[in-house]
Request: fold
Amino acid sequence: MSEARVLHAEVGIVGAGPGGLAAAVELVRQGLSVLVLDEGQQPGGQIFRQLPPGAAALPGQEPPSHQAGHGLLAAATEHAVPVHHGATVWNVAPGRLWFEQHGQSWLLCCRHLVLATGAFDRCVPFPGWTLPGVTTAGALQVMVRGYGVVPGRRALVVGSGPLLLPTVATLHQAGVEVVAALEASSRWRALRALPAVLTNAARRREALWYARSLLRAGVRLRWGWTVFACEGDGRVQRAVIGKVDAEGNPRRGSERRLEVDVVGAGFGLVPSIELGQLLGCRTRYDAPRGGHCLEVDGQQGTSVAGVYAVGEACGVGGAEVAMAEGRLAAAAIVAAVRQTPIDAALRTRVAAERRAADAMLRAFAPLPGLHRLATDDTLVCRCEDVPLARARAAAALHGDSLRAIKVGCRAGMGPCQGRICGSSLQALATGRCDVVPDLPVAQVPGKPVRSATIVDAPEPPATA
Amino acid sequence: MSGSRLPGQDQRPAVTFTFAGRPVVARAGDSIAMALWAAGERELRRSSGEGRPRGVYCNMGVCFDCLVVVDGVTVRGCTTTVQDGMRVERGGRP
Amino acid sequence: MVETAEVVVVGGGIIGCAVTWQLANLLPAGTRIVLLDRGPIAGGTSGSCMGHLMVTPDDAREYAFTHESVRLWRELQEQQGGFDYNPTGALYLADTDEDAAMFPVLQQQFGACGDHADVLDRKQLRELEPGLAADLPGALFYPGDGVVLPMLACGAMLRAARQANPNVVVRPFTAVVGVDCDARGVSAVRTTPATIATRAVVNCCGVYAPELQRTLGGPPLPIVPRAGNLAITGHHVSPVRTQLLEISYLRFAHGAAKVDPTRTDDPGGHAVNMQPQSHGGCLIGSTRQFRGMDRTLNPALLRRSLQRAQRYAPGLAAAPIVRTWVGLRPYSLDKHPLIGPWPAVPGLWVAAGHEGLGISLAPITGRLLAEMFTGRPTTIDATAWLPARFGA
Reply:
């Protein structure tokens, strides 16, 4: 039962990715006590994934941005930043984080909270997307860079946005033949990202590195193409690819077939904001930044006192943004505790990184026409096995809100809690891609945990 | 078998577990999902409605598509580290 | 052109859908029936409740009421399906001798109604449900109960209604802004986009029924919300296949409330109900607490109900909980639903106030209301549920 599984720290941080770690390092450096909770087994989050100790290293060079990751991880080690790995945070209140670790129920009591919960791949349903071997682009990155596992022999990489190139580069480094790399956006649309890339030195270096690495790999990025379907017996064996128009609508008749054994699809990222929602933090909708985001002020403070959000949770922006925001949040917390001013340079840095990231992301804002890839029998909810036709019938009868669609066909009610289908379900079911989708409702537990974890949840000490 | 490991020296100790009754050799620190992928296994569960094969999808603990049953308890294959002697079964519809 | 309807049903939960379905069956085909809800169909209590089809043998009247409704549910299953109907029966459980002493009492009640239930000893219980705790003294098994998924059942009822009568119109996200009356009674329903001329309105708004009624004058509708905390597991982890209820549920849920329902300082209570779902998950309730329209989770009550569930089915402890939430039951102040005309306003009808039995009783409620509406003799004597008892 509820033994003394109560921990204390001045600052509780959720997520050991670039934003969370940057905040933690800064806070520890300033003498505050910190505890970072992270679901992964290694620090670094998704973007700076680390191999398990002793694993064979990935051959070849790393992109320049990963230097920052190494620096951050080294600083975290140097300052002995405490991180609890394998910790799933399932409930939250101001100054309280309830989490499950190794099947046990814990509570972290703190004065300040930093949400650095990151993002996950935006999924666009297409026929065959549930076949084993068809994964998100992020899944392949984790596979290679987090576990040293080679995904397959012949890979297709599809999607949209700045994460396609790293996926292709990683696969090539792992010795996988990338038979095609398809960017759904048109080349002309993507050119709008160019000024942002050219004016930011780090992004310019990064882009050049990927351009060279693609050249070496002999992979040509095809603009205005995407996957129409995946086929196979029990696992993916073939992919049907084709052209899309400027809005992402599939141009039927342009199809080609490819033999592949792995497909990675990533159409951008969706901010992970559920814990902020459970806290009652105000959200806002920002399509290029991935949809619903946590709203923050000029010091990364959310609308709830003592709760800060950094990185992708405030809108997708990448590792540089996350680290800058992590440092700013740390400074804001130190300022609140010590009544000291915040270094203006930190704010300037956040603004500059956000500007560059936003300009880049605007060029890859989600294409509405991609929702026409799904056919009547394509599953729109992987958890509950709901085909598109049933979701449409639900919207027609129950109403066109996200809640109406859910109660009409149970899409979004499975264990992923609507994360995978949430960004596309409403557009698919209503056929209206141009309206702002409803904010999905967040419920306890923030992620599924054992019944016993809820029953055994420690009570906060009365004096805390 | 498709799927393998990066070339080069892997200094981690071997870990043996069973999947659907068959022995699988993994490396310490592998997640169940990645150990199975490296061993060529793609189907980790059967879907709830139609009983269709499913496997690793997001690989970061979000999608719950890689659910497996470890010693009777349903867990995410991608966030659960393999242990020596683990008995892992396919998740989802029996 | 003025829109007209023979009858406007307000409230797209299970009761409104059942009323629409049964009106469509009994009114001449082609009669225009409009169902409105200011939110989604099944977006209120029916989208956040359990799905117990429950036969209660308290007396002959209650038995006929509940038994006939469960029979109508079976008919809907045969005719439409698609709502995860599962005739699992019900296992009444106890873990104290005092509660176990209620098994033969309940068995006798079923017998007195001409039905039957079996008292199981420890061994028989283990054979039926190996996932139950080994120390349970036994159980009462009643085979006639079932489980449905209410939100999908709303859709099935509306499909059945449209098949019977293509002039059934369903309008989610359409709020009623007022009901007009003239010397003859109800004359029109004003909604957000349009006014519908009609001589009949059925208030099926559940916990919101008093709100609609207030716009019409007359005595207030005696319905207050009673909150329940729920939890659902992931798929294929349910430790049991049969629906489970603590037998103390009968005392707790079916006895009169021991607190003043109109106050909001009720500490609340619980008697666990576990419902296996079609996807192999398990839905766990049921707590009861009067605290107005508050739909925030009560962690203490939820925890106690999960704790009780784990006590009966220990395997649940390791099962992943995917979601928890609160639903509001429409509790009527004398514990009985209101079904029939509201005499103070000619043309106004009420079907609401079913507390925790709304899903179970929806079909018979729809049937009785439609029978009264069309001037037919009722399937069973419905006098006890007439809203007139509240002095309207």
